[in-house]
């Protein structure tokens, strides 16, 4: 049996759904096929353990999408028509230290600076100037995030024509720790700011990651950080409603075995059960560069495939545990930190100790002092659990390949690691006692890869490392950076490994713009219809 559509989409991750929604709104007949029994990819909220307790499987906080015109201008009607609601916190980010003191970055810049002044008056004024500079530079940077990027040469030449551009270019070539260590003086302020940047799966001392520290203060103090009401999957739910409203179809439990290429053109997808679904205008596919050979065989030149297979994934991954709690979590540090959207914990008190722990990840070792974040998300959204109850979201940075046993060893040790991480969290909260924990589910980096093998290769939820040589039109490679595959007409790529990067960006918008251009569709007119 075969079905004929204008566009077929492989993968119902949020990026694929975004691209599908724009095309469906433009009047195209769209089919999205998804191997899982639910849509969303890395943007999913589910009852993992106990009915009524709703956990975010992967993404939880939506930061970078807040500058996307899909959100700022509601181009798809996700807010006006399809039920999307965001909680915007006044407390985007906080750190708790071993002595239970804490440092909060408020959305309000004056309050954020007052917090830093508790540790260093000089750093407070430095941060104020730094954040203002970030906010000034933000429009220039954001303007290129949600559309196909300029060629790398043109992009660098453009930056080199202004003081702001040269400053950005300099930051993009440096490491985050280089910028932070030379700009601020207090170790806790340095650690607080650096840990925020590592949320993008960046090592603090890796060259080519410094732009993150320039970008994040501007994002936080301009847009804030947010979570959809009901969980991260609220974005997916709204996108599904949008696609279906405009006549698109989403088929679950439908795994793709290959992209069909005929006469140098992608014409459809073959499913694992043998069914073929055809796309008259083209195919959109969430295919990690390491998986190009698997899905396209010899339809792509070997040199293109080899460059794709050399794409570097992030240096570390995440180890996550989801707890159902009888009673909502509290903190020894007090109630204010509970309101933070992103909350980090430290048992070290110096930057060298922090860098030593990150260095363990680079070598496939688990640090003795876990690099952790997470909290009880019912403080911001009580709908996530029954009244008075809580959900604890434990996030620990971890290597994908362990020094002893490789990735496969995770299946042996993950519960032991989860127990160790639990003992660490108990230093900061009295609520994670055995009698308050109803149930726990743990995801290792290997489990992350299994959940989305065509996107989360090597347990990298961001698809590819955010190094400068894998950014802009070189993300993931110069061959693939224009959302197309050389030699295969009508095939468009979508996913976290594409520009602008991993995380929740709504980056399928850029894929849609590229396809609109090739089909001769006026994007602005179609979106405004």
UniProtKB/TrEMBL annotation:
InterPro entries: FAD/NAD-bd_sf, GDP_dissociation_inhibitor. It comes from the Bacteria. It holds the Pfam family NAD_binding_8. One of its GO terms (molecular function) is GDP-dissociation inhibitor activity. Signal peptide: none annotated. Gene3D superfamilies: FAD/NAD(P)-binding domain. One of its GO terms (biological process) is small GTPase-mediated signal transduction. Residues 369-388 are annotated as: Disordered. SUPFAM superfamilies: FAD/NAD(P)-binding domain. This is Phytoene dehydrogenase-like protein. It comes from Nitrospirillum iridis. The lineage of its organism: Bacteria, Pseudomonadati, Pseudomonadota, Alphaproteobacteria, Rhodospirillales.
